[in-house]
Write a structure and sequence with these properties.
By secondary structure, this protein is α+β, with helices and mostly antiparallel strands. Helix content is 48%, strand content 12%. β12 and β13 form a beta hairpin. The structure holds protoporphyrin IX containing FE. The site of protoporphyrin IX containing FE has 26 residues, from α10, α11 and α15. Protoporphyrin IX containing FE binds next to α10, α11 and α15.
Length: 397
């Protein structure tokens, strides 16, 4: 094992941030110090250039997730596939997860998601104001998730409260609070598994039943890894959509012409969302650990040192996306953005994420004639980046 060494502090990720300064820090680091070290949050390297992030995300035999998959490091209460496992151990879990996000399943969910979105948006429009993150973004993905996981009604609310507490604890780096909320989520997962063992559902539409039915070389998954997977998917898709929705609303308030254009031409929304996902990528803290000494941009990273893949910065790399801080519809290489990661851990739920974002903006724009930020925008801490609270004035049609 490599010895701990003193490395100069290149940046401080713990200072106060605003919506713009958070992204601005990485714009500056890409110029000054693209492979940057900090002692904060347990000590880690931040990769800010596209090519470096892409390499670390793709070379999974060298850059592993099983030590630490996020900065700051969270004390594990158990191994949770697929994020905590490296290939080849990771692969069978993705084989089970991926079919649950196929287009056919997404089409079946579309009317359900639209109903949820409308139920949540209409009261905000009627009131003429509301916090799009706290009153819409924090609820919509959980309710959609509840439908996707076939959760009983009462558990959806438990998930919303426990998930929000957990994320708050992670963001505040409050390890005391993190453990009990994580354990509550385990309780929820345990309960769900017990229900499905008694009354299995069709594995083609139910993740828990699919995990229970899966066989690798004739063997079922170990009980604690099924539990870990259910626990993992219970929170993984909840925060990012809310942060992106908030960030997009900030942008559309600052650019009323674009807001008007997307309202008048809703067929542009899917392409606009891809550019928004690039510009306001909600993650900067997914991490890997090098299992041997490696070199990035002339700097040596030693075995066992933590590395953050700053997807939010890679997507603003001027070498790949010209005028990176500008919103440009239909960039020729927009498909190359890494908002959903890259390599074996690339987001399993991206079809669902895209679907719920599309429906959210179709309905928000169709049911309003204008919205505008009318108060302070609060921002997310690492591992996320972007808006956590966005108060809006909302004019109906
Ligand atoms: C805007 C919304 C979302 C964004 C930007 C996003 C982004 C990401 C990223 C960047 C990763 C890669 C992590 C890494 O490199 O270590 C990831 C992994 C993952 N995401 Fe998402 N995600 C979103 C929504 C969702 C949703 C809705 C679900 C499920 C319903 C989901 C399920 C997962 C899972 C299971 C993984 C782990 C994959 C693995 O380790 O193999 N995500 N996501």
């Amino acid at each position: 094992m490599s010895e701990r060494r003193h490395i100069p502090q290149d940046f401080d990720p713990t200072g106060p941030e605003t919506f713009d300064s958070a992204f601005g820090l990485y714009d500056e680091l890409r110029q000054r110090c693209p492979v940057a070290h900090t002692d904060a949050l347990g000590g880690y390297w931040a990769l800010t250039k596209y090519k470096d992030v892409e390499r670390a995300a793709s070379e999974s035999e060298t850059f592993i997730t099983s030590v630490q998959n996020v900065v700051p490091k969270i004390a594990f209460t158990g191994r949770r596939p697929p994020l905590h496992l490296d290939p080849p151990e990771h692969t069978p879990y993705r084989r089970v997860l991926n079919p649950l996000f196929v287009p056919e399943r997404m089409r079946a969910l579309e009317p359900v998601i639209r109903r949820i979105v409308i139920e949540l948006i209409d009261p905000l429009v009627a009131r003429g104001q509301g916090d799009i993150c706290k009153e819409f973004g924090a609820h919509m993905p959980v309710r959609v998730f509840g439908e996707w996981m076939n959760l009983p009604e009462d558990q959806v609310e438990t998930l919303r409260v426990a998930g929000a507490d957990f994320v708050h604890a992670v963001e505040a780096a409050d390890f005391e609070l993190m453990k009990p909320t994580s354990l509550r989520l385990y309780e929820l997962a345990r309960d769900l598994i017990a229900r499905r063992k008694k009354e299995p559902m069709d594995p083609a539409i139910d993740i828990t039943s699919a995990l229970l039915a899966a066989r690798v070389d004739g063997q079922p998954f170990a009980d604690e890894l099924i539990l870990g997977t259910v626990r993992q998917v219970l929170v993984v898709g909840i925060v990012a959509p809310s942060v992106v929705i908030g960030s997009i609303c900030v942008h559309l308030s600052r650019h009323p012409d674009l807001q008007h254009k997307l309202r008048a031409e809703p067929e542009l929304i899917p392409a606009a969302l891809e550019e928004f996902l690039r510009l306001y990528t909600p993650y900067r803290g997914f991490a890997r650990t090098a299992n041997r000494d490696v070199e990035f941009g002339g700097r040596e990273i030693l075995k066992d040192e933590a590395i953050a893949l700053v997807y939010a910065s890679a997507n603003r790399d001027e070498d790949v996306f010209p005028d990176p801080t500008q919103f440009i519809l239909d960039r020729p290489n927009i498909r190359d953005h890494m908002a959903f990661g890259r390599g074996p851990h690339q987001c399993a739920g991206m079809n669902l994420a895209r679907l719920e974002l599309r429906i959210a903006f179709e309905e928000l724009l169709a049911r309003t004639s204008h919205f505008d930020v009318n108060g302070e925008v609060l921002v997310a801490k690492i591992p996320e980046i972007g808006a956590l609270s966005v108060p809006l004035t909302i004019k109906g049609r």
